[in-house]
What we know:
The protein has 463 residues and is an alpha+beta fold. It has helices spanning 2-8, 10-26, 31-44, 47-61, 156-173, 177-188, 194-202, 206-209, 213-227, 233-251, 255-273, 279-293, 301-324, 334-361, 367-395, 400-419, 438-462; strands spanning 72-87, 92-102, 105-113, 125-135, 138-148, 363-365, 428-430. It has 3 domains: 2-64, no CATH class; 72-154, CATH 2.40.50.140; 164-299 and 362-432, no CATH class. The chain is 63% helix and 14% strand. A hairpin with a 2-residue loop joins β4 (125-135) and β5. α2 runs parallel beside α12, α11 crosses α12 and α15 packs antiparallel against α16.
Amino acid sequence: MHHSFWREHPALLLGLTLLIGIGFSLFAFPLWLTLLWALYLLFLRRFAFLLALLLAVLYAHFFSVPDLPDPLPCTARFSISAVHRHHSPFFKELHYRGTLTLNNLSFPCTVPLKTKPPPPATQDYQLTGTLRQRGPHDFLFKPTQWTPIPHTFSLAHLRHQTKEHFRSFLHSKLHLPRTATLLASLSTGEVEDRLLRYEFGRLGLQHILAISGFHFAILIQFFSLFLSLFLPHKPKWIALISLLTLYYLFIGSSPAVQRAWIISILFFLSKLLKQPTSPINLLGGALLIELLFNPLIASNLAFQLSFGCCFGILLLYSPIRKFLQPLFPKKPHLIPAFFHSSLSLTLAVNTAILPLLLLHFGRFPYLSLLYNLFFPFLISLSLLLLIPTLLLHLLVPTFAIPAFSLLDHYTASLLDLISHPPLLLDYSLYIQEIPYQLIPLYLFALLCLSLWLKRKDSYLFNY
């Protein structure tokens, strides 16, 4: 089963090989783990992938940052990729995020801004100030002087201003401020409300606030149905590629957004070129492309959870659904069928990412299993209602008023659900420390289990 599985999904095997090599070179993956993967590749007789593993180690080495004095007074070039509002209990400020280049070394960096007005994020700058390191591959620069670099360009300023205008528009059309805040966060991926972030995180729903494949799926579903009314297949796919790319430029290049956008574009390109593909190969292609462009992204929590969730869905959803089948009627009605699918999906995702959640947060809320059964579906209805409401406002603003009112009250009822959870179930699993080296072994064990179950089902079917 291993040979046939990887023969059908070479993109995922190459992406994982690149990830293991990068982990060894940049993130202190133990040598024994890398050697185990090399032995597995030998078992598969994938000798070219052994060479890819070695090249990945060498390639990632160019992105490593040597130990720097902390703090370090210096002058460096800063390329801005995103502008975010940062809210702490004591103050509010803007954060410019991007790439700092110092002595031919490039690494991600955040520049906090308290000065008003801030320098426009429309170009690169030569910064003079102090560089500090907050963690592995995580730097903070406090500038004293900004010098614009001519003939450079950044979309960060336009993206930030567009998001601010959209946020203001929602607050002007919706009467309940928290409703407007939630819908703005769901649409832009910018979660400024600390209470909103806490309430969703408390129930294990923080993945809903981050732009991911969930949001892209809603956009694809709506516009695919809409464009099918007057466009044939090929022009519709081209239009969808254009719309998703515009949305990607509007949101920005976070790891989860990149994954969702790359998978969507690869899928529609396969349709245009009439080439067969599979969801697992699309996931592997996205993993490969993201790591090639930025190996440091492997340490990002959003990257890990995004690909971990997809791994769980693609490999564990079907086996878990079959395992739970005896609990549901053979000819289920709509509601039992919905809960069967939701329960299978929730268990598949949480089985895959549970070690990651415990590693980064030290806890897993039990209410997450309950709320993830129905809340993502309910919030998707809110987003699906928002899209036609915005289109209606563009065409006939007067007719959009009742739609905004309906959206306001429906979304407010969802906020009540998360603001007042059942206290009798408000408990969590706590683990103080989990060795990160065990997580790749755990995920590989899940892969082996899914392949064994697939082989077992195939054997029973043939029998």
